[in-house]
Design goal:
Two copies of one chain form a homodimer. By secondary structure, chain A is α/β, with parallel strands linked by helices. Chain A has three domains: 173 residues, Rossmann fold (3-Layer(aba) Sandwich); 98 residues, N-(1-d-carboxylethyl)-l-norvaline Dehydrogenase, domain 2, CATH 1.10.1040; 149 residues, Roll (Thiol Ester Dehydrase, Chain A), CATH 3.10.129. In chain A, 42% of the residues lie in helices and 19% in strands. The first copy, chain A, has 16 helices and 13 strands. In chain A, strands 3-2-1-4-5-6-7-8 form an eight-stranded mixed beta sheet, sandwiched between helices. In chain A, a hairpin with a 2-residue loop joins strand 11 and strand 12. The longest helix of chain A is centred in the middle third of the chain and has 21 residues. Chain A is globular, with a radius of gyration of 27 Å. The mean pLDDT of chain A is 91. The interface between A and B is large, with 148 and 150 residues.
């Protein structure tokens, strides 16, 4: 399968798709008749480049090639994935699919970003209906992992599997809906909340800001990690989900169900919402709000990544897949022992920046500690070994901060073993952006028993792997700054 | 005002209130006729103690006293806040309020945790209706900041202001609703989503797990930080909110509005939900899920805290209020110069733990770096000064990890100035849990111009403050480990 995607229709959603594919190493061919398309997509790409690459702890592959094309036929040539994000009018979608299918490969996925149409509607009159499926993303497409994948009854089963594999490789989660329904799943919830919100504003109960606070200070944070049912399962306690629902059910016939009709969207109501929104958020431009939103999303998603839960667990899965078969998954025995080893290649995430505008000092140690973890893994001190009761604890650390680095930079860490024998491991890391040396991290570790929390010998396998590298590194030049003490020169 | 709260009715919600007050230094007097109340509240308290204190970067005050009482009259004696969390039946609420008001102070707030009743209903027949108001929290009450505060038309304005001040001091956000309405605001949204979810499960469109994924991989993460309207404002782009709504409005009459009636909660539907939930989450006990949830919430809320946004901005505001007037807000000139200065007193947060089960090494530096920031602030290098273009950058760091520490421990950092003259600042931090020395952090910093990114002299005021402490500290004993190099002893 080629790593070429065709994006039909730019804008915020199409641009988000461009960014997802491009930053994951795909070439992207765009068709959009809007003369502003290149500028608009460029703005989305700029946002994506500052936020997406730092989500993972390994660097994404090199960016693919982006090209703009005058016709749909040109754009879809050689593409394995074609994503349609044209306006939400069925006749425009049908015309687009006809042009796409006249020129594209038969084994390419044709995804539609539609939020409202069912696949059976999209497929009407198509040359190959089974090739067209709903692949509905969520803004910002470059960060949020959810894709509602709805192939409908006519969907080609093999193509659906192919689509799921591609989406997962892009760090996305294909939510494969087996039955089609208007507006799929997520937007039905958004509509339900939207209707209720319109009533609350119309009746003067709450402002847009009060409604947002009611969401983000309460159930919004719960839902970000567990959704609806798992949250209620916890709330229900040991009595179980069945008990909880039986108790909760009667509330459904309480008086507020009377408001389930749709409020009329009068000019007055539109003005009220717009005015309240200005009062709430008007101090920030949309560009500022986008950056604030992306900073928040990256921060929370990286937090969930550390907990290996929800959207963060998806990032870890993508990371494992990216590392497989590369030097970042190799064991020490498979690497030459006469050169410092590469223990990190990653992008500085958005949330590692401090008030001085650069990567903050504790994140240097965070990156060095991750590099130490990777070195431990290389010599066999991996998660399974740690589970069995042995690990290394750091006893002493010395860092020289030699230069600044900023969010978005790709940094590499190489590691030299200074001493490796028995319980002792003395490592010297160097962190670089390209050729530029940013910092050195010198660390003395002891192997411990996790039961006694006291020093203990490592397994014979680990010691052998460590000694092999230590011997190989013994012939390397002594790194600058090794053994240095603060104030030692004075 | 006394710092005594009376909690009438335990359980998950009442227990959450107990934890909020107790961990913020209030004495708490509980009335709950359930013989299991003490055990149940103890379980909630255990969860709260492991998660809440680490939310802030300053330690919470010492815990208050918890006591259980045989009568409502005893429980409310001397209380400034009385919180009712009895079952959702109006006659029980009325009886409870009558007993409370017969014994409590007239200037105490009486809050009700009701999710369904309006204040006018609660106040019916009360001796002093204005004293009773809805104060509706969200589970887990010890972590989520939202309180819907609804006093109704009879509400006493002065008591409402008092209630808002108390809630803010507990790190909560009082969402003051001026008009009463069934189910307040947030639960109306929850009901709307719940109804839609029941339909989706009943019609076999999606399982509980698929619905949770549709929420937590997509709009749930958006809502955790911006809610509904600010999210749409960003999505609408530069065209503005008004344009966005006018475009979005027509969707409201699309076919899925036909499903706005309430599905019947048959035994079959209840079983289906319970079975799907077991398949989704049954591998975790409720206790495990509670801990996972709290780990996730703490991680995301601390992330938002670093961004000073949403629920995180609330934590920062609480922190500022807690620091005001204490040594953690003092300037260097107000402190004696002949002893190491206290630069941190904080609780190790849940998300600082690693796979070895203790505070991970980079968080030692995180805590030391925060202590350095606090020391900088003490000598006048505060946010305002940094804004004006000067700051300190760390050039070199040496850490000795001497002992382990775990989430929930209160740690203190004291700081000794080794050298302070011109651009140079050499600090030696010691981190302790009680008397136990955990680590030392030695740091060499240079004052820089944030414009040129090169070393530059600090302001005269900062240099004077630094030199004063450096002179005072010159007579202190040389700290153990100062100037040490890794491997130096070998």
């Amino acid at each position: 399968m080629s790593k070429v995607a065709a994006i039909i229709g730019g804008g915020v959603i199409g641009g988000g798709w461009v960014a997802r594919f491009l930053l994951n190493g795909w070439d992207v061919q765009v068709f959009d008749p809007d003369p502003e398309a290149e500028r608009k997509i460029g703005e989305v790409l700029a946002n994506a480049r500052r936020s997406l690459p730092g989500l993972t702890d390994v660097a994404l592959p090199a960016e693919g090639q982006l090209s703009f094309h005058a016709t749909i036929a040109e754009a879809v040539a050689g593409a394995a994935w074609i994503q349609e994000s044209v306006p939400e009018r069925l006749e425009i979608k049908h015309t687009t699919f006809a042009e796409v299918q006249a020129a594209c490969a038969q084994d390419a996925v044709i995804g539609s970003s539609t939020s409202g149409f069912k696949p059976s509607e999209l497929q009407q009159g198509a040359a190959r209906p089974g090739q067209i499926m709903v692949a509905h993303p969520f803004n910002p497409v470059y960060l949020l992992p959810l894709i509602e994948l709805v192939p409908g009854e006519a969907g080609d089963a093999a193509l659906v599997e192919q689509a799921k594999a591609v989406l997962a490789s892009l760090g996305m989660h294909p939510l494969h809906l087996k039955k089609e329904i208007d507006a799929h799943v997520a937007d039905r919830f958004l509509e339900a909340v939207w209707r209720e919100a319109l009533w609350l504003i119309k009746d003067g109960i709450a402002t847009t800001e009060e409604i947002d606070d009611a969401i983000r200070y309460g159930f919004g944070i719960r839902w970000a990690q567990m959704g609806l049912f798992e949250t209620y399962r916890v709330a229900g306690g040991e009595a179980g989900m069945k008990h909880f629902i039986a108790q909760f059910g009667p509330c459904l016939s309480w008086p507020w169900t009377k408001l389930m009709d749709v409020p009329e969207l009068t000019d007055e109501l539109v003005d009220r919402i717009a005015d309240q929104s200005d009062a709430q958020s008007g101090m920030h431009s949309i560009r500022e709000l986008e950056r604030i939103r992306d900073n928040n999303l990256v921060t929370m998603m990286r937090g969930l990544k550390a907990q290996n839960w929800g959207a963060g667990a998806l990032i870890n899965a993508q990371e494992q897949a990216m590392k497989a078969g590369t030097v970042m998954a190799a064991r020490a025995d498979d690497l030459p022992a006469d050169a410092p080893v590469l223990t990190a290649r990653r992008t500085v995430p958005l949330d590692w920046t401090d008030y001085n505008g650069h990567m903050t000092e504790s994140r240097y140690l965070h990156a060095f500690a991750d590099a130490t973890d990777r070195f431990m893994e290389m010599i066999g001190c991996d998660a399974e070994y740690i589970q069995s009761g042995g690990s290394y604890f750091t006893a002493e650390t010395h860092i020289r901060h030699l230069d600044e680095v900023h969010a978005g930079a790709v940094i590499e860490i190489t590691t030299q073993v200074i001493l490796g024998e028995g319980k002792k491991m003395h490592l010297f890391h160097e962190m670089r952006e390209g050729e530029r040396l940013l910092a050195s991290g010198e660390h003395f570790l002891l192997h411990v028993s996790l039961e006694t929390r006291k020093p203990s010998p490592p397994s014979a396998e680990i010691e052998a792997a460590l000694v092999r590298i230590a011997k190989g590194h013994a012939g390397l030049p002594r790194p600058e700054g090794l053994g240095r003490a603060i104030g030692g020169a004075r």
